């Protein structure tokens, strides 16, 4: 994708600038979708790995000490996500929670 400055220099008229802007916005939309796909795959994979460890898919399940399990349950219960709002901070909260749970399981 060409740099916005170069695209804008090709034509000096308003129409050329508007077309260059439209191309850049279309590129941003594509990048957003790709970024969300990769993010979703990564965090979902982390959650799947945690679940596999807890359920023992083919191996004995990991049974953390009761205090660790209580702490994880509290954290999961305390996280407030509002998916209908589509906020970035919800994604950050989910990613942070996933990391915390994985770390606690590693210690157990």
Classification by helices and strands: mainly alpha
Percent helix, as a range, is over 70%
Structural domains: how many: 2
The number of helical segments is 4
Give the rounded overall mean pLDDT.
88
Q: How many beta strands in the DSSP annotation? A: 0
End-to-end C-alpha gap = 48 Å
What is the CA-based Rg, rounded? 22 Å
Shape: elongated
Largest sheet: none
How much strand?
Answer: under 5%
Q: Order of helices and strands, N to C?
A: HHHH
Give me the oligomer status.
single chain
Low-confidence stretches: none
Structure at a glance:
The protein is mostly helical and 108 residues long. It folds into 2 domains: 1-62, no CATH class; 63-108. Helices cover 76% and strands 0% of the residues.
Write structural notes for this entry.
With 108 residues, the chain is an all-alpha fold. It folds into two domains: 1-62, no CATH class; 63-108. Helices cover 76% and strands 0% of the residues. The protein is built from four helices and no strands. The longest helix has 42 residues, at 14-55.
């Amino acid at each position: 994708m060409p740099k916005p400055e170069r695209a804008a220099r090709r034509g000096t008229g308003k129409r050329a600038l508007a077309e260059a802007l439209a191309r850049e916005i279309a590129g941003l939309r594509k990048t957003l979708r790709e970024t969300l796909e990769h993010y979703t795959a990564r965090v979902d994979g982390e959650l799947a790995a945690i679940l596999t460890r807890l359920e023992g898919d083919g191996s004995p399940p990991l049974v953390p000490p009761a205090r660790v399990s209580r702490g994880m349950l509290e954290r999961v219960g305390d996280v407030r996500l509002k998916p209908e709002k589509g906020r970035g901070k919800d994604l950050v909260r989910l990613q942070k929670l996933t990391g915390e749970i994985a770390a606690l399981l590693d210690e157990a």
